[in-house]
Amino acid sequence: MSYKVNERVLCFHGPLLYEAKVIDTEKKEDSSTYLIHYRGWKNSWDEWVGPDRILKWNDENLKTQKELKSTALAAKQKSAATKKAASSTNKVGEASGQATKPIGKRSRESSATTMEGESRETSQRAKAQKSASPVPHVIKNEAVSEAAVDAAVKAVEEESVDEEPPLPKHKVRVPDVLKLWLVDDWEHITKHLQLISLPRKPTVRAAIAAFRESKISSLTNEVDVDVFEQAMAGLAIYFNKCLGNMLLYRFERQQYLEVRREYPGVEMCDIYGAEHLIRLFVSLPELIDHTNMDSQSIDCLLGYIEEFLQYLVQHKDEYFINKYQDASPNYRSLIGV
Prior knowledge:
Blueprint: E1 8-13, E2 16-27, E3 32-38, E4 47-49, E5 54-56, H1 59-95, H2 122-130, H3 146-158, H4 176-191, E6 194-195, H5 204-216, H6 222-247, H7 253-262, H8 274-288, H9 295-314, H10 316-319, E7 325-326, H11 329-335
Antiparallel strand pairs: 1-2, 1-5, 2-3, 3-4, 6-7
């Protein structure tokens, strides 16, 4: 089935169908791809999709849209009820004097990643890091543990049933040069069907280690060093946990599966490079909203992330590829393009 430019359609995004419009088409040998704009969503959510994700705008498909939404909302309500019951049990335990561990997540007003706008006042972050009063004595260990990251990723995935992902509470200021690089990266992979050759060198772990080495000598006391070390260790955990769930384009998923088979037991931060690391950085605010980190710790962590991004800009020739590889015919056939 084919679609025309400006045609009103329904398009799958995750498990749900959304009203959308076809704004461009690209014909290939045996099929076409379509550039989709979701009604009411920012242009940054526009994406190229195959015909398998698009449905005609008609009564039958509109009924399917409503059924999918009802099913998703019912599942979300059931999950919320389960969490509420667990929270009540936790409170009973506290009242009876038992040692219990908080299990609730921070509420949040948003779940979408963003590369636009400014963070909170930079001066506030600088003050949090440089004040004579102590910076957070720790970036809470549970906030960067594998269990906490798993919980944050799961929470973000559950919120995919919302009509339009709202903006996150926190933002990371991405340098303009990296914003442009991210756009080019998207075009290479989703439009030109190219891939980043793996394994990458330097790897994500190597990039983190290099930034740590460049920064740590400027820290003046043990508290600052401890906070910084925890933040850097947390980045590797977040990357390993988020890569397969959040950081890959559809065209890259087969490559990811092949890498996992070829390098069993190897962490993904030792396979992938800075190209995927900056995708994590722009996704980090929505993950942080689902941790129990206090605002001072968050400002401190995001301050380090922004310094890391500036470091990558200064060393972009070392960390970013200048040539993508064309996917093989066999790979394309596996993807179905």
